Amino acid sequence: MRAVLLLSGGMDSLVATAMAHHQGFDLAAMHVNYGQRTWQKELECFRLICDHYGIDRRLEVDAGFLGAIGGSSLTDEAIPVGPADLGGTTIPTSYVPFRNACFLSMAVSWSEVIGAERIFIGAVEEDSSGYPDCRKVFYDAFNQVIDLGTKPETGIEILTPLIAMSKAEIVARGMELDAPFNYSWSCYKSEGRACGVCDSCARRLRAFEIAGIPDPVDYEIRPNYLQ
């Protein structure tokens, strides 16, 4: 069975890729550049991960319209990337409005063309940053949209294997599958050394600390987020 991977180059999409590879899917990988601050590093990681798993069928999409729309600190230089807020209950400035719906729409289109029956996305609900498009209910609804909006003979389903996992559990699962974490990138701010203080860096560092595994990525600073 063929599967399309929405592969950002981040830790979660890496582990979702490792899981799909372990399950024996015929893999095709899609990466979206949408004007994010770290797009060059993320694209580099996408290509390294694809090389690692021998994924030759790849699609690199330019979705610059998301950057033009703005509204996110990831795409608008005028909006600063906020510091880590691991206990926050509000949606952070890094939320890109309706981004995952755009990504999924592209993935469904490509899946129809290449005959893929599954779409893997590394969405995490429990330990995400409170993004509304990382919730299980969102993906359940989108699967209904796919049923209604594709050809009758098309059978495409979104799979979210990480949706109920914590970041630490994702790290542990990735280690079990020998996922190359050194090829992944999580920082929202930097393409050189990861900043260590943005929300994404903090969640990644805390996950590795909980799992008792050293993070192979190089950081400017490595705060202890277990304190």
Q: What share of the residues does DSSP label as strand, in percent?
A: 5-15%
Order of helices and strands: EHEHEHHEHEHH
Question: What's the CATH architecture name?
Answer: 3-Layer(aba) Sandwich
Structural class comes to: alpha/beta
Beta-strand segment tally: 5
- Globular, elongated, flat, extended or rod-shaped: what is the shape? globular
Q: Number of helical runs?
A: 7
Classify the helix fraction into a percent range.
Answer: 25-40%
Could you state the CATH homologous superfamily?
Answer: HUPs
Explain what this protein looks like in three dimensions.
This protein has 227 residues and is an alpha/beta fold. It has helices at 11-22, 39-53, 64-69, 99-114, 136-149, 167-176, 199-211; strands at residues 2-6, 26-33, 58-62, 118-121, 157-159. The chain has a single domain, classed as 3-Layer(aba) Sandwich (Rossmann fold). It has seven helices and five strands; from the N terminus they run E-H-E-H-E-H-H-E-H-E-H-H. It has a five-stranded parallel sheet with strand order 3-2-1-4-5, with helices on both faces. Helix 1 (11-22) packs across helix 6 (167-176) and helix 6 (167-176) crosses helix 7. The longest helix has 16 residues, at 99-114.
